Amino acid sequence: MNTLFKILILVLLVTMIYNLVLAMRQMIKKPDGEQKMSKFIGRRVMLSALIILLILIGMATGVITPNPRPF
C-alpha cells in the first residue's frame, strides 16, 4: 500500500511537470487559437492541490510517515 501510494504521487508529479512543459510550449508559440496556456496552468494547479491533499491524507492515515526532526 505504501509503495502504491508513493507511485501515485510520483505519477501525479510527472503529469504536473508535463503540463508545465505544455504551457511553456504554448507560451512560446504564436497564438493559433488551438489551446490556451491557462488550460495547462489550471491543470497544474489542480494536480498540485491533489498531491498536497493526498500527502495530508497519507500522513493522517499513517500510510506515509514524515521524516523525524533533525535535532
Q: Which parts are unreliable, with pLDDT below 50 for 5 consecutive residues or more?
A: none
Q: What is the subunit arrangement here?
A: single chain
Euclidean distance between termini CA atoms? 30 Å
Helix-residue proportion: over 70%
The chain-level mean pLDDT equals 86
Please count the helical segments: 2
Describe the structure using short key phrases:
71 residues; mainly alpha
Overall description:
This protein has helices at residues 2-28, 37-61. It has two helices and no strands. With 71 residues, it is mainly alpha-helical. The mean pLDDT is 86. Helix 1 runs antiparallel to helix 2.
Summarize the SSE layout with pairings.
Blueprint lengths: L1 H27 L8 H25 L10
Helix pairs in contact: 1-2
Summarize the structure.
The chain is mainly alpha-helical and 71 residues long. It has helices at 2-28, 37-61.
